[in-house]
Amino acid sequence: MQWEEEMCIVSGNNRAVDGKPPKTVVELWCRTRSGHSVTLLVDGLRPYLVVAEPGSPRPASESAAGLDYLRGMDEVVEITSIGDKWTHLGEKPHWKIEVRQPYEIRRLRKRIQDAWVVTSADILFVQRLLLDCDLGPHILARGEVLWAGERAPLEARDEQTSDRAIAAGRIADVGGVGIYPTDMVVSCTLDNLAKTEPFRTPFVTFSFDLETSIQSNRILCAAAVIDRGGERSEHTFRGEEGDIMEGLTSLVRLEDPDIITGYNIDNFDLPRMEERTDVLAGRSKMEAAALYGWGRVPMLQSENKRLFPTRQQNRVWRIPGRIPLDAWWQVHTSTLRPQRETLSYVSKLLWPEDEDKHKLDIDASQMDREWAERPDEVLEYCVRDTVLPLDILGRLQSVARKEALASVSMTTVETASAGTTSQWIDSLVIRLADRSNVAVPTTNSGPRRRDQIAGGYVHEVDAGISPWVVVLDFKSMYPSIMIANNICPTTLVRDDSTDDSYNVSPTTHTSYRSKDERIGLVPHLLEQLMQSRDKHKAALTAARDAGDEAEAFLQDQMQYAVKILMNSFYGVFASSFYRFTHPDIGASITEWARHNIRDIIAQVESDGHKVVYSDTDSIFVRAPVDKQAPINRPDEGEEGLDEWERAKRETLQFGER
Prior knowledge:
This protein is of the alpha+beta class.
């Protein structure tokens, strides 16, 4: 049965399928626009890397012997010439080396890296699919329905798709494994995927909280709330510890959430579930899966490695197919910046007048006594602590912002949520490099520390109060500098050549080729992003004028996501590890920034105006108004109001000039 719908990619993985020939199937866990969860099994992409001969460019015909050697390797399936690509040594012939499985790429790269320059060789296979098909998180997919559960659309259900045994066999035939805990399992090829316009996805969120013994670490009770498109259901668990954990796990697998949240789950609830699973299940993986098998994969022995949440580097947890989104971390990284980050303090800060959104009066430091004396109140307290994280995520617009960032950076929502800025930028830079025939180097694996780059200019400030100050702030200063001077690894002049057309940095005299000679990848992308943000801002204004709040919300999230992404470019390209960077790039950006700020300060001061302060991309200037004008606005009818209004008007006019 064929089925088609728009959907958002939550996260993805890949499965190696042995056979003749072997193949790799991509698993995409999605939520459709109408609210159904889908496991999309995508066939048709073969893993590969790209190679070129080292040294200066030579004709492709001279590489025949080396290519024959590559063809004789067990991992290699096919070799294809893909023409000339740009490298810092000039344009050179490149070849695409297709291999049997993704895990063989790293091994092959090590075997041949002394004889060949290896590129495009460290890109995750799921990301490779998005790059090669030019897809973002929002897609239109058409495919064959292999399994349809009770929540699947009626038109997708028939005798074959609803029978678990038949469905499991059909899923195995296309390279999947068992019945995934989603509403539907659909098989498709690359040709059945297309990019679609962003929309607000009705994600399902699972918020949970544990109350545990101070004395023994045992879980005393738990609560969970399922938010499905704004409709919430509360669930409580008490009794034997194993029954509590099995109840939570059954709820996760039944309700199939995309996002798992709570308050401080990264540092407490998830580690405690892991610890208690080890205590109760010991070495039995299937017993452990019943207690903590939250991964979006079938509950099978073969899937043991993917059933459990695992902690990654930088405090990030990974649950295959789902996104852990700690509400505490969202508060910590938000502009809210509370004095304290406890749930009690944050809830009162956000909703000072709403008692229903404040924590209940339970002494968590005496939880064993509280549980023994008043268990019902403790359970109510636990439920409240599952509702508040959902409200916090909604107030901070955390989920919507992750989805918007995924849409702008063209990644999965999981990458936008838990990935790094270099992964977001990689998604855009690599696909532009591929379209522009630029070789994609691997991530730098050498030492991460190097001489510190001089930062932005800071103007010394005098002690005291300066009244009537105008603040001049540069719009996207670092991105603007990168655009204006065509700063990019592909335009960096790496030899001693000089030319009047070069853009030369003021201090170190680092040179970049002009746009007339070659437009850099980075300036090209930044210009596109600036235009995109202006478009979203215009659409936001139009939606507000039309009273379309849903569209206004979407456009506001999109323009904010573009801003975040643009501001990330400098940090990534000033790093020591990014694949496209060079030590001179970050330094020359800040050079131009300091030069520009100092130049404007000199102009302002030459006109007789005092610069009070300056920091990186802003200048504080004393306005030439009457020094006797009141600083604070007098009330209506009070003496000095006319003078204050005049000073305000003159200050604004001065700022505009």
